[in-house]
Amino acid sequence: MADDHPSYVCPQCGGLILNRGYPKCEHCQADLPAQLLFSKAEMDKNWAAYAAAQQRDADQRLRDAITQFGGDGVSNPPTP
Ligand SMILES: [Zn+2]
User: Fold this and answer.
1) What is the 15 CA–ligand 1 centroid distance (Å)?
2) Is the CA virtual torsion 32, 33, 38, 40 positive or negative?
3) How many domains are contained in the chain?
4) Ligand 1 centre from 70 Cα, in Å?
5) pTM of the entire predicted model
6) Of the segments 12-16, 17-21, 40-44, which one has the largest average pLDDT value?
7) Contact 15/9 with Cβ under 8 angstroms?
8) Same domain for 44 and 63
């Protein structure tokens, strides 16, 4: 069966690699070759998305706090 979407498995134990941001096998702790891990660009993209999500969460909490405090006139900008 041809599968052009390769799954990432540990060359040591054959276990499935669940977290490609972690440089070791989660099953046998073997060092994983770089080609099985996220590239620098992919990591940067992940971090950017993570940071953006964190910022969005913080903004929302702040907005909720202001609203609960009775801050009328606080208008939420339309979310895309
Ligand atoms: Zn392993």
Assistant:
1) 5
2) positive
3) 2
4) 55
5) 0.50
6) 12-16
7) yes
8) yes
Are both 29 and 45 inside the same structural domain? no
41: CA distance to ligand 1 center in Å? 25
What are the phi and psi torsion angles at 16 (to 5°)?
Answer: -70, 135
C-alpha dihedral sign at 62, 67, 68, 71:
positive
* Upper half-sphere CA count for residue 39 (Cβ side, 13 Å): 3
Gap from CA of 19 to ligand 1 centroid (Å)? 12
* Residue 31 confidence (pLDDT): 96
Return the residue matching tokens 């940067």.
44
Q: Write the pLDDT tens digit of every residue in 20-71.
A: 989 999 999 999 999 899 888 888 999 999 999 999 999 999 999 988 877 5
- Give the domain extent around 23: 8-37
Residue 71 has a pLDDT of 59
* Token reading at 52: 């953006």
